[in-house]
Amino acid sequence: MRTLADLGPSKLLPAEQERVRAAADVLLFSEDAHEPATAEALEAIRALSAHLVATERWSETSASRLREDLEACGPALLVG
User: Fold this and answer.
1) Beta-carbon count within 10 A of 71 CB
2) pTM of structure
3) Do 69 and 1 touch, CB atoms closer than 8 A?
4) Which residues contact 49 (CB under 8 A, 6 or more apart)?
5) Taking each helix axis from N to C terminus, what angle separates 14-29 and 36-54, rounded to the nearest 10 degrees?
6) Is the Cβ–Cβ distance between 12 and 4 less than 8 Å?
7) What does the DSSP 8-state code read for residue 13?
8) For residue range 31-47, what is the model confidence (pLDDT) as tens digits?
9) Closest among 38, 44, 48 to 78, alpha carbons compared
């Protein structure tokens, strides 16, 4: 979550911050990469990062770091 700390909370709207937290919670506690909740959490983060880039609020580099950080919270073999 260093990416969020480096960027600061002002870079995400409260609802976006909640989406990131919710996805991180699911990924942290997921034991199986094939669980539907895991896939949903990954998709939520991918959609959010794509939205941030598409609206030019974040660079692709920052969005990629966020995705990578969150994916690293999940099971070793993520569904991708």
Assistant:
1) 17
2) 0.81
3) yes
4) 58, 63, 64, 66, 67
5) 150
6) yes
7) -
8) 888 889 999 999 999 99
9) 38
